[in-house]
Amino acid sequence: MEHEVFTVDPGPCHSRVSAWNRRKTSEEYRRIGEHTGFQSPEFATALQRLAGQERYLVQLWRD
Q1: Which residues pair with 18 in a beta bridge?
Q2: What residues have CB less than 8 Å from 19, skipping those under 6 apart?
Q3: Do 55 and 4 contact (CB within 8 A), yes or no?
Q4: Chain segment 28-58, per-residue pLDDT in tens
Q5: pTM of this prediction?
Q6: Is the separation of the CB atoms in 21 and 54 below 8 Å?
Q7: Bridge partner list, 14
Q8: Please, what is the Cα angle at 20 between 58 and 38, to 5 degrees?
Q9: What domain of life (predicted)?
């Protein structure tokens, strides 16, 4: 999965960050890690399966 990167001009700005599926995904990471071990191949497979499940919206604006 490729991530987009952007830059913001220096200076003060307001921000709002909204997230979807964050709690569900983090609970699933923890559940699988506790069951299989965080260094196990099963956990690595779960990481790939869960990648992209969390969604974020970042809004930036200036006065």
Answers
A1: 57
A2: 54, 55, 56, 57
A3: no
A4: 889 988 988 889 998 899 888 888 889 999 9
A5: 0.60
A6: yes
A7: 61
A8: 110
A9: Bacteria
